[in-house]
Amino acid sequence: MTTDIGTRTLGIDSPLTVSTLGLGCMGMSEFYGTGDEDAGIATIRRALDLGVTLLDTADMYGPFVNEELVGKAVAGRRGDAVLATKFGNERRADGTRVGINGRPEYVVAACDASLRRLGVDHIDLYYQHRVDRSVPIEETVGAMAGLVTAGKVRHLGLSEAGPDTIRRAHAVHPITALQTEYSLFTRDLEDEILPTIRELGIGLVPYSPLGRGLLTGAITAESGAVGEGDLRRSDYFPRFRGDALATNLGLVDRVRALAAAKGVSPGQLALAWVLAQGQDIVPIPGTKRVKYVEENVDAAAVDLTADDLASLASAVPRGAVAGARYGDMSNIDD
């Protein structure tokens, strides 16, 4: 089955219409095992064929090579794609992490470098990847706004920003979207962040809407957490370690049972749950395989009843997930 996934609009003051769900491209180059450029390009092109327009990357993925991969994939099809990329997690070419950088002069230089790697004349949605607490957000967003004036960027976004930062940023220039982690397994933003962005008319772009793969049901205790070369094997992702993994896989089993009863995959059910949280939400499940793009797209056709949502709430109570979403949460703005 292939679904007409339709569109949703992110933001009110600076609206951007995109496909109902997007594609996270990070894992095609780094973090989740060995990258495969050809497979990544094929995956992106298949996504475009299926009506997925929002493609998400960042300069630090690779580093740098993920933007180049995305650029190759959209060559000749720029009109089919809404390109989103990010700056602020500064890395060197050898992968060394320099730190978070929100200085105005860096914003401009990073944007110019991303444009070159993507091979385009503008970025549709440009995010600050992480908040630089050493630089007033007004200065960073002021530089980002200058990119809009220059025609290099069309819309602005923030990633992992807290409520106060969001308000201050939005006062400088309309913020179209906030990107942060949101799924059945990660719901803390419902307390303050989600009400804040809805008050301001800012859309939500959830990354890891499948719990970094846990909610697909593909990861089991028998198969081991993940393969060699996958960062999820490390302490960086506590939810994949020891007793926490066992607890979380127990929750996945409950999702699996509900999905089977509905005739869908666990991942499709989990994505449908995210989509059901509001028309201002556009998740970006990441994958590097065509078959999973096809599966994810079909999640847009899964209608959840009130009883379905209640069953999911009972199966995965908020706060039931074991382990923090990152081993080091110090770079997450609150």
UniProtKB/TrEMBL annotation:
Sorted alphabetically, the Gene Ontology cellular component annotations on this record are:
cytoplasm
Single Gene Ontology MF annotation: oxidoreductase activity
Q: Which UniProt keywords apply?
A: Oxidoreductase
Instruction: Please give the superkingdom of this protein's source.
Output: Bacteria
Start and end residues of each NADP-dependent oxidoreductase domain: 21-315
- What protein name does the entry list? Aldo/keto reductase
Origin organism is Rhodococcus spelaei
